[in-house]
Design a protein that fits this description.
The chain has eight helices and 17 strands. The chain is α+β, with helices and mostly antiparallel strands and about 325 residues long.
Length: about 325
């Protein structure tokens, strides 16, 4: 299978392009954006050297489904998905924040907790918690939205307001939207035998209205556990079976890489690349209940350009 790792499109009325860690975003003169979900993969804010076949399609199609399924909660940027790897939507003036919602203590939060930290982003954490334990209620731990190559940083509500990154009214709405979206994602995951552990949301303004941007509830932005066996594994202190990008981070850490200066990304063998691709496909099928249909055209760029140009025309 092919992997699309870079693009160079010239769509009608295109004014600009931004190449992010994973997505390439093309701006149009009428205020719309064409967002291409490439097969690039990043971890520890570093773009890894190998693309992951099917990843972009999985991310785009899951995000499109959840954007449609949550439009009653919060308006969002999506207008159409003219290609399996593309979403066209409204341009939003983004808040420089990622609203991270955590239902369970794991990942970076657990690593901090294990080292003695008892407060994240101004949110106090209970004593005596164990790895992968459920919080009494979901917590919001925002981060700043870093520029490419820089690390996101934890930030508290008080600091967000002090810096003027959102008004008190806007931030209150961001919290309400984030918790309601997390609840909906939790319900959908539960119907599919999964637990939505944590996720991130990005929001922006269209005029004075707050819109949900970017992706939602994908394996790049979210962590899922299998519900079956969760309690037994937790009681026994065993690692949870999970579907997320965390296994990529764990593989990198096992091979001496955490994105720190001077560290080298370990070699990504074809076997590693294939295993990551299959994890993404597995999550798609679990979340949707449908078999993943790979659009493995001989020339992905030609297909995307044709589909998007026809839609815009």
């Amino acid at each position: 299978m092919q992997a699309l790792t870079k693009t160079d499109f010239h769509f009608p009325a295109q004014t600009d392009v931004y190449h992010g860690k994973v997505r390439d975003v093309y701006s149009l003169a009428d205020g719309r954006l064409v967002m291409v979900a490439t097969d690039r993969i990043s971890a520890f804010d570093v773009i890894l050297p190998e693309g992951i076949p099917a990843k972009g399609q999985v991310l785009n199609q899951i995000a499109a489904r959840f954007l449609d399924a949550t439009a009653d909660i919060c308006p969002n940027w999506k207008l159409a998905s003219p290609d399996p790897m593309v979403t066209v939507g409204r341009r939003c003036e983004g808040f420089p924040l990622e609203m991270i919602v955590r239902g369970y203590l794991c990942g970076s939060a657990w690593r901090a907790y294990k080292s003695g930290v008892r407060e994240i982003c101004g949110v106090p954490l209970p004593e005596g918690m164990r790895e992968n334990e459920r919080f009494p209620q979901p917590i919001i731990t925002p981060t700043t939205k870093a520029e490419l190559g820089l690390h996101d940083e934890d930030i508290s509500k008080a600091e967000i307001l002090r810096r003027g990154l959102a008004t008190p009214e806007q931030y209150a709405q961001l919290e309400r939207y984030a918790l309601a979206l997390f609840q909906r994602g939790t319900e959908v995951a539960a119907r599919r035998g999964l637990i939505l552990v944590d996720t991130k949301y990005e929001f922006g303004l269209v005029g004075k209205d707050i819109y949900l941007m970017d992706e939602i509830h994908t394996p790049d932005s979210s962590r899922y556990f299998y519900a079956e066996g969760y309690e037994e594994r937790f009681a026994a202190g065993l690692p949870q079976r999970q579907l997320s990008k965390e296994f990529v981070r764990e593989w990198l850490m096992e091979n001496g890489f955490q994105g720190r200066e001077g560290q080298q990304v370990p070699t990504m063998t074809p076997e590693i690349v294939e295993s990551i691709s299959q994890r993404y496909i597995e999550l798609y099928e679990h979340l949707t209940g449908e078999r993943f249909e790979m659009h493995d055209d001989e020339n992905l760029e030609a297909r995307i350009e044709k589909n998007v140009t026809e839609y815009l025309g």
